[in-house]
Design brief:
- The chain is mostly helical and 122 residues long.
- It contains five helices and three strands.
- The protein has a three-stranded parallel beta sheet, sandwiched between helices.
- Strand 2, helix 4 and strand 3 form a beta-alpha-beta unit.
- It is globular.
Amino acid sequence: MDDEQDIASAFTIGLEQYGFEVDVFNDPEDALSSFRAGWYGLLLLDIRMPKINGFELYRNLSNKDLNVKVCFMIAYELYYEALKKDYPSLDVGCFIQKPITIDDLVKHVCTELCIPSRVGNL
């Protein structure tokens, strides 16, 4: 989920080249209404989006699926302590700094999904 279509498209193409199935959304409200509990292995959510930010979207999605995993995509410096102050119940440790290479993105995804890295296995 990224409101910037170019970024979402690049991530989708890159992840699909490594064999991942990807659903992409550019509008958080569309993502929320299309979400299927138990379907997704990992959510990649941009933090800064219009209408609903990534944290609010995650809170809404996790109410639909308590087991959903998430990595937040950040394009700016984010300090964990400030995040915990604003979202004290947030129990997420995966933050991916943009810009990021596809290889590094795939490594993060593999780590979060507890699968061997697919980098170099095209």
